[in-house]
Amino acid sequence: MFFNVQLKSSLFEFYYSKTTNRQIITSFYIQLPGAKQCSQCKRTRVNSVDHFNGQFKASGLCWLCRGKREILCGNCNGAGFTGGFMRTLED
């Protein structure tokens, strides 16, 4: 899937706030490049466990994302675009 995304193209242009439109291949399934919402904590950073029929909740840091709220995308392997830096040999 192709999108037009504004990227900083050089250090000189970065300091003078000029941008360049470039066409890159991005993963369709993600909101942020290379990451998706944590499926375990649902972006709350903690896992809650009910005890005593819901009268008490114990929570701890999410074991899947470790409090970062996001995990690697399964389609782009964290690169933010298909065919990224973590490609497998089968592709």
Please explain how this structure is put together.
The chain has 91 residues and is mainly beta. It folds into two domains: 1-34 and 73-91, no CATH class; 38-70, no CATH class. The protein contains one helix and six strands. It has one helix at 11-15; strands at residues 2-7, 20-25, 35-37, 46-51, 56-61, 70-72. Strands 1-2 form a two-stranded antiparallel ribbon. A two-stranded antiparallel sheet has the order 3-6. The longest helix is centred in the N-terminal third of the chain and has 5 residues, at 11-15. The chain starts with a strand and ends in a 19-residue tail after the last strand. Mean pLDDT is 64; it is low at 1-5 and 17-31.
Poorly predicted regions are: 1-5, 17-31
Radius of gyration: 19 Å
Please write the string of helix (H) and strand (E) elements. EHEEEEE
Major β-sheet annotation: 2 strands, antiparallel
How many domain regions? 2
* Rounded average pLDDT: 64
Shape category: rod-shaped
State the distance separating the first and last CA atoms: 17 Å
Q: How many β-strand runs?
A: 6
Strand share of the residues? 25-35%
Could you give the order of strands across the largest sheet?
1-2
DSSP helical segment count: 1
Approximately how much helix is present in the residues?
Answer: under 10%
- Helix and strand composition category: mainly beta
Domain BSD2 cysteine rich: 34-91
InterPro entries: BSD2_CRD
Protein name: BSD2 cysteine rich domain-containing protein
